[in-house]
Amino acid sequence: MTHGPHGEYGAVLHVAHRHAMAWLDSVDQRPIRPDLDVDGVHARLPQELPEDGIDPVAVIEELAEASTPGLMAMGSPRFYGFVIGGTYPAALAADWLVTAWDQNTGSRQPTPATAAVEEVAAAWLLELLGLPARSGVGFVTGATMANFGCLVSARDAVLRGAGADPVEGIQRAPSVRFLAGDAVHTSMVLAGRLAGLGAPQTVGADDQGRIDVRGLERALGDGEGPAIVALQAGDVHSGAFDDFAAAVEIAHQAGAWVHVDGAFGLWAAASPRLRQLVGGLADADSWATDAHKTLNVPYDCGVAIVRDEAAMNAALGAHAAYLPSVQSVSDPYDRTPELSRRARGVTVWAALRSLGRQGVVRLIDGLTDAATALADGLRAIPGLEVLNDVVFTQVCLAAGDDASTAALGEWLRAEGTVWASSSTWRGRTVVRFAVSNRGTDGEAVRRTIDAVARGAAALGVGGQSARPRDEQVR
């Protein structure tokens, strides 16, 4: 290994920095869709593993040249797919440092720096979201693993409450009832399967996807034994929030553990203007969110939060003679399903430190304002309608029939100014706009509306026809 002012890393990191900056400088204006598909990128990559290695600088040059045409501009302020945010500069730079430091942040003792930063980030998150200050917080890969960590904690806690020992395995334990609304997200379904709970029993939902509280009450009353109830902060199509105050009270009266899937919507709790959406949320037992969505930190950074940190540690903690630990304080690997992991929470610390409390409020409110403006503009396009009540950051758009809606979604993604997901909601095909990027400002909204109007005209949606560029929506 070469040492010195830059050593063996200097030249190759310089090349990586150059390509990274070229990408970041282009994201706002480039077409969002990739220019090449997987096969096209394959064709640009060497297929044979070399017998002898080549210079690292040449490797990075080759990687960037082959890959860039196949990259999706997910950081664009007009990317509305999959509920993906952008990246704050401080969070991106912190992520580079995390990679360079290369700390396996499983235990506090060998990695005091990154463990301390994550603990401060966790405390700030709990304060911002109005959650119990002594909750356990684990930084995981994404919303699915955050839900999984919380459900495993819930499963073991309710089994212990029923007199079973989770250490003996769920095969010998009582059956755990797992209940959710009809609009439960697929990540919650998957997390339940991974946790051995199976698919949730659904209890109904209203037309915006909010759980049917009376249906929940009936379902809890019809059965017996340990139970876990999954609620939602932010429906993936409508953005709607469950009635937490009523649902949590009913669930707790039945002795159930309440978990909240707040992948993107949990952040509404940080905004004084939006807190009416989350009344009663803090009374739940666990919460999951994803910082690469609404907080705009780089992939990956899910957050699992459990009110009873001891229950979280008991369910997720792993101990061995070779693993250092301090008995009076839990380690990071006591709060995640991993022993080895990067210090994901450092990017959360950097984002929150750079934003401050009011910056977070402006971010959340700004995303909501952008979604409202986008919905207003889309409603004004003849032949199109917004199907959901826009209360947070989701907008579901439809044309007069499913075929026209599907065609519009395909046209937008191919044209490249805008990328929005196609989906099915309430029995209709929709184009779903998830406003998650910090850069989605008035200009991005204007360009989005213009692109949708051009697409509708090009396809003749609602009787429109293509018109000269100078007549298009400004």
From TrEMBL:
Listed GO MF terms: transaminase activity
Alphabetical UniProt keywords: Aminotransferase, Decarboxylase, Lyase, Pyridoxal phosphate, Transferase
Pfam family, one: Pyridoxal_deC
Cofactor: pyridoxal 5'-phosphate
Protein name per UniProt: Aspartate aminotransferase family protein
Stated family: Belongs to the group II decarboxylase family.
InterPro entries in alphabetical order: Aromatic_deC (IPR010977), PyrdxlP-dep_de-COase (IPR002129), PyrdxlP-dep_Trfase (IPR015424), PyrdxlP-dep_Trfase_major (IPR015421), PyrdxlP-dep_Trfase_small (IPR015422)
